[in-house]
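Give me the 3D structure for Translation initiation factor 3 N-terminal domain-containing protein.
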Amino acid sequence: MPPFHLSSTSRALYRVFIAPALPLRTPTFYPNPQTLQLPSRTFTQTALRAKAFRKDTARHALQDHYTLDTAIQGSHINYVDLTGRFHKYIPLSDALTSFDRSTHHLLLVSAGRVDESGLTDPAHPPVCKVVSKIELRQQHGKKMDLQRRQAKGLGAGPAQKHLELNWAIAPGDLSHRLEKMKGFLREGRKVEVLLGPKRRGKVASERECEEVLRKLREAVAECKGSVEYKAPEGTVGGVMTLVYLGRRVEKEKEKVEKEA
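Predicted structure for Translation initiation factor 3 N-terminal domain-containing protein (260 residues):
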């Protein structure tokens, strides 16, 4: 700090000889806290989701209902390959390496007899066959659908279909609806047809109503094996219910092929 208490001569000598030898001091400025601006920071809220763990039932459904691949017990099996060829009493390990396991399974058809050490009784080996994974899953799906229908008190056959028609329906629309009905009947389904008057517009005459009934019965007659399940309920021109029971065409074809 310069000696301000000294005389003017001493201060002059101080500025000439002493002050230049002193280190320079940089003045320090302190910002006003009220005007101080801190760098802005953006905070984003991250939503945390609880990850739900559930059993993949679709992936393990087949293994839960069928005995497949390495789950088959026994050292030897009787085996049917993809071509339908029967192989008698071959090692299980050989059968498992004879097909592509990424697309097919070795399915246990009937269990054999195995001793405590896991060796197969030669007289009673397990019977297995190779099946496509896709076909086996489809077969399992149909089986589960059947069980659900039976649990609901429904029949084992295909689901019933409902068809609504009005007595004043246009010929083109009637033809289209009857084709749908014939398709259901040929699938072996039961079809319930509900006939009623048109809510608005044209009122069908008695002759037009009889014509609709005639075409309906002709369409049923074109489906081989289809029958009227029960007597019609209601009145012509009013509300009438008719129920028909179809018959699957594929079964008839399979029967003819087997007989041939």
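The first helix runs from residue 8 to 18. Let me know if you want a second pass.
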